[in-house]
């Protein structure tokens, strides 16, 4: 089971491969054929069998056969179907006939990695977030420049990051506040190596920051200081070590905060906490990681826009933080600074 926290919606895939979304639906980002908000999970239309799903301001997923589909807001071409349709209420196939292993959706663009390790992006490209050497929007996938072979890629706010099969991290696009991690604040429309020579297992591109986990389980973040978790709140254009000495298996960079899961399944979050997105029972910002309340054991956690969601090792889905339009999926529209269980089928 997988759950992804997006902008004002969340999406997940059940063990059987059925995709569900919940929260805001003004542009069809729940994919259920309507534009009606829902504070409980609703089935994504089309009967597709998904292996993963990613929620941004729109939503995308990859089927078990490797086909990519997107739905919701597509005004900048971020659905990848060759159109700029504002609101697609059901999944549309991403053009090109590519076979993907994963896809990542953010505000106005999307990125994915094929089973051969080639990265593609589509959508808005004002700052070079597609990584193809241009600043031209594209409503179909374009290959990320450089001939790199990626194991994963993550779409952030006007930027993207990825990890090669050799464990090297690269980022591209807007570099406001240093979120590309290359030691500069210069925008790049092709991938640039993240400074420090670290070997990563994964990276996550957020809003004004990015984070990654090394193969040794150490977490690093770069960009906007209040979201880096190093206790300083100082912006950094190179990776800084997240405080606490935690050994993480994964990290997720959201809009205003970040979350990670340790190798023992404990969830921690850090950053802005106005609406309880850190899940520690307070609304106090955290410049260092704080433990998510409830004593749950997680297999994965996803940081979104002022909210977070995670899946426990027993397969139960929980969300916490801002609950505008029902994006916590618990049948209410009430914010929660501790995890609340997502309604069935999760």
Question: What would you report as the Rg, rounded to the nearest angstrom?
Answer: 18 Å
Structural class: mainly beta
Largest sheet: 4 strands, antiparallel
Element pattern in H and E: EEEEEEEEEEEEEEEEEEEEEEEEEEEE
Number of H- or I-type helical stretches? 0
Multimeric state: single chain
Major sheet strand order: 1-2-3-4
Helix content bin: under 10%
The low-confidence runs, each spanning 5 or more residues with pLDDT under 50, are none
Strand content: over 45%
Q: What overall form do the CA principal axes indicate?
A: globular
Q: What is the mean predicted local confidence, pLDDT? A: 98
Distance between the termini: 9 Å
Tally of DSSP β-strands: 28
């Amino acid at each position: 089971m997988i759950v992804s926290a997006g902008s004002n919606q969340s999406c997940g895939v059940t063990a059987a491969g059925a995709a569900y979304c919940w929260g805001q639906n003004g542009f069809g980002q729940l994919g259920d054929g309507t534009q009606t908000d829902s504070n409980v999970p609703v089935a994504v239309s089309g009967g597709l069998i998904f292996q993963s799903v990613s929620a941004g301001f729109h939503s995308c997923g990859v089927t078990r056969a490797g086909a990519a589909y997107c739905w919701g807001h597509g005004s900048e071409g971020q659905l990848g179907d060759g159109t700029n349709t504002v609101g697609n209420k059901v999944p549309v196939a991403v053009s090109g006939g590519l076979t993907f292993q994963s896809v990542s959706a953010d505000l106005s663009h999307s990125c994915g990695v094929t089973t051969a390790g080639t990265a593609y992006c589509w959508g808005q490209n004002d700052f070079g977030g597609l990584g193809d050497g241009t600043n031209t929007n594209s409503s179909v996938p374009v290959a990320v420049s450089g001939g790199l072979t990626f194991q994963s890629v993550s779409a952030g706010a006007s930027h993207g990051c990825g990890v090669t099969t050799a464990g090297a991290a690269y980022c591209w696009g807007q570099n406001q506040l240093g979120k590309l991690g290359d030691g500069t604040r210069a925008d790049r429309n092709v991938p640039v190596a993240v400074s420090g020579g670290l070997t990563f297992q994964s990276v996550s591109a957020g809003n004004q920051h990015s984070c990654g986990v090394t193969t040794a389980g150490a977490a690093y973040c770069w960009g906007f200081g209040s979201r880096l978790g190093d206790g300083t709140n100082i912006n950094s254009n190179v990776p800084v070590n997240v405080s606490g000495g935690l050994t993480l298996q994964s990290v997720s960079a959201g809009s205003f905060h970040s979350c990670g899961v340790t190798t023992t399944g404990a969830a921690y979050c850090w950053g802005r906490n106005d609406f309880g997105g850190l899940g520690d029972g307070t609304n106090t910002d955290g410049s260092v990681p704080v433990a998510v309340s409830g004593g749950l054991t997680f297999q994965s956690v996803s940081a979104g826009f002022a909210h977070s969601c995670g899946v426990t090792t027993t397969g139960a889905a929980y969300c916490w933080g801002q609950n505008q339009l029902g994006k916590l999926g618990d049948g209410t529209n009430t914010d929660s600074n501790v995890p609340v269980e997502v309604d069935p089928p999760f």
